[in-house]
Amino acid sequence: MRKMFLLLVSATLLCQAAFSQSAPPAWKEAQSGGYKYRYIPGDPMQARFYTLPNGLSVILSVNKKDPRIQTLIGVRAGSNSDPVTHTGLAHYLEHLLFKGTSKYGSLDWAKEKPYLDKIEKLYDTYNHTTDEAKRKVIYRQIDSVSGIAATFAIANEYDKMMTNMGAQNTNAHTWVEETVYQEDIPSTAIDKFLAVQAERFRDPQFRIFHTELEAVYEEKNRGLDNDGRKVYETTLSTLFPTHNYGQQSTIGTVEHLRNPSLIEIRKFYNKYYVPNNMSVIFAGDFDPDYVIKKVDAAFSYMKPKPVTEYTGPKEAPIAQPIVKEVYGPDAENISMAFRMPGSNDTRNTVLLNVVAYVLSNGKAGLLDLNLNKQQKVLRASISLYPWKDYSVFTLNGRAKQDQSLDEVKELLVSQLTALRNGDFDESLIKAIVNNIKLDEIQGLESNETRANTLMDAFIKHKGKNWNYDVGMIDAMSKVTKKDITDFAARFLNNNYVLLYKRKGEDKNIEKVEKPPITPVAVNRDAQSDFLKKVADMPETPVKPLWLDFQKDIQNGKAGPAELLYVQNKDNSLFRLHYRFDMGNFADRQLATALEYLKLTGTDKYSSEEISKQFYQIACNFSTNVGNEETTITISGLQENFDKAVELFDHLLSQCKADEQVLAGLKNRLFKTRADNKLNKSSILTGLRSYATYGAKNPFNSQLSNDELKGLTAAGLVQQLHDLANYRHSVIYYGPASQADVSSSVARLHRQPATFKEAKPATQFTRTVSAGNKVLFADYDMVQAEVSWVRNTDTYDPSRTAVVDLYNNYFGYGMGSIVFQTIRESKALAYSTYAYYASPAKKNDHYSMLAYVGSQADKINDAIVGMNELLTTLPESDKAFETARSSMRKGIETERITQDGIVFNYINARKLGLDTDIRKSVYERAAQLQFNDLKQLHQQEVSGKPYTYCIVASEKKLAADDLKKYGEVQKLSLEEIFGY
């Protein structure tokens, strides 16, 4: 989790720094609507901090941009607080808080409760039984009783209530010191939201436990397949040999996962889920006086209890590097992790923030300029984990071709030496502060960023140090070079854990075995009285707002280029885009040329000097080469618009050929290509593209290795110098007037009198399947990943409403038919979805896509389960109405703003549309019936041939099993990637 405007780094140990830190802004107190609150003058979020009589913290930040609210409910307890004999317990509990209470999630609570009590006792017996034969007998009893209990349960009723009120992004997470529940709700749903949440935490019931337990098993096994996760956990266990940071992983040990205790989970809930240890946070469009009154009324039933926070032991200092190795199939890398002070000392918080930015800020830090820009490594970066007792500060590096990890390590060490020696310009500190101010302005636009920033403050200090957070930028501006070098000399020496992530077999993996589980009932059409009560609560309708492309966008010229203009009336930020109607399909080396642009200089400036200049003026440029379009974006503070546009244009038109720079880029590209072949997600993406288009497809139609070798710096420079001569449009969002933008761009951006037309694009033809096929790629992993791919009809805008509703009903989100069946009922996967994908341009085709990520020993069951759903669409009137309500409320509260208006317009044009299609979708959705979805399913999904894309280990799958699903074609990595 990151702060809105800072790389959040915290420190506890007293540092003998001499910088003059001014006093933070003082807290003020005010009263409104009958409630007292505290606030900080000058707080850009204007946050109000309330403490209700029972100790519940409520933090409110109003932002009227959209008629929606980001809500978070947080508990100051995570894996640190797990009992040592039951690690993973806080995470278990997070999952179970979605299962309902005695009032919802149950058909008949009186009949269900005896079975839940019996299940709890059986798990306790199971937990204390060591004989494997007896454990199997007990588990069969658990499975049997759970099946009976499930007949009285209503699966996913929480999700149904949230979806019905128009909530989005329903989720939760557990980490080291926190458990946080999130919802993005319409502003009209405050009363409904609070009614559900107050009941949710009143008396949670741990129903449908054994299938949810299996989902956690799946989550654990996915982590065992994730080399980055293994590096993370090994780093922490080494840095913290006694503290829970390193001794208790969030998801828990395999042994503890096999022996859950509902009794211990209940104890944990009763101990930590108390009002004086919790916070409710709102960020968005609401009346704070109304909200605080409603929150108080909803949660006043909660009674405070004393809470003893976990205080870990003090770790012994690390005197010399501790070396560890982790093995796995993914690409190699190295990291140097430092155990740093925690978050109680505000002086060190300031210093460590500045140190982090001096080392890496994406543009002008030591790692950015000395390693990445000069291509001395494939990539170097930092990462920060800011916790209360300690923080973890890590330098990460990946090797180029023909470079050892030890060489990368020495280069990382050299930058720490440079930091200690003060080998950086002190003006960098001022630039850092200016860029943080820019980030702050950008962060204020997002309700999610506001809410997460406030929740972070609550988790660490119950919000008590918010005044220091508000004053952070001012404090950072007072830091001197000597302060930084003194800090680095004290904390960044040989006191690190050196971790090598090496390619090879991990012989220590112990997966959580699949227990025998009988599918349970989900009772899709059932509804509790509580759900009906919430649904009947009044709410003020929100009127949807449609885009009017003729009024919302001003058209003009910026030189010969078309100018699409939207004014920013909120702040001083601008974004300028040059958009070309050509991309990878037209020119396969364009992406390489634009990467080269970021690394070379001109006769006037070196590449490093250009990066420094952009950072000094708090501006940036980025490039994005898509398949059919290329966008160059320049952004920053409007006061520096001319400087930024002129500087980029100088770079584009005057960049020089440097074969040494190109040689370094080629080296890194070849290494990146090799690393991509080691990544299971990239492999699955390649399989899907192969299934969609055949052997020649967008994914593998890249420059061959020989073509890449043959590129010359002179050729790339010529291409870059010529780029602005191709037809492109100019898109501007910012505070300047249209006339000023038009004249400034015409003056600063070199363009020809007449544009060249875009190069013709390579055309790819989608496959037409006559029968089922299996595309298989071998990968050393515990899990198995399966995707279903099928191409269907060409785009028809009149079908948009039914397609969107079908996806909401069938395969999107936790309330969908696919999720309820595959995960909730059958416990076959942690992650699963299915949807009918719409094309991005007219005359292109729809496609049906589905996915299951499962344990290898469950793959056959998972495939059968998904195939049953693809064959027969389950009918649920209640689920249908919920999906339709959610879809319409989402459109009602959606506001397309800023330059998003222009890109929405461009996307509409690609589809042959000249109006905002959401209007017709909204109106049509009200008329749709289930038979419309059924007809789509029967015509395009059911009984049709599919291509199964499977990434798994050959050691864990039987070859004959794959043949059951179609003709098997095992693809080599060269066939998948094209090189």
How is this structure best summarized?
With 979 residues, this protein is of the alpha+beta class. Among the domains are: 549-657 and 712-748, Metalloenzyme, LuxS/M16 peptidase-like (Cytochrome Bc1 Complex, Chain A, domain 1, 2-Layer Sandwich), CATH 3.30.830.10; 773-977, Cytochrome Bc1 Complex, Chain A, domain 1.
User: Which word captures the global form?
Assistant: globular
The rounded Rg comes to: 29 Å
CATH architecture descriptor text of the domain at 773-977:
2-Layer Sandwich
End-to-end Cα distance: 37 Å
Using the coordinates above, name the CATH class of the domain at 773-977.
Alpha Beta
* Beta-strand share of residues: 15-25%
Question: What is the typical, i.e. mean, pLDDT?
Answer: 93
CATH topology of the domain at 773-977: Cytochrome Bc1 Complex, Chain A, domain 1
Q: How large is the count of helical segments?
A: 38
Backbone structural class = alpha+beta
How many E-type strands? 25
CATH superfamily of the domain at 773-977: Metalloenzyme, LuxS/M16 peptidase-like
Oligomeric category? single chain
Task: List unreliable stretches of 5+ residues.
Answer: 1-18
Helix content: 40-55%
Please list the strands of the largest sheet in the order they lie side by side. 3-4-8-5-7-6
| Biggest β-sheet description | 6 strands, mixed
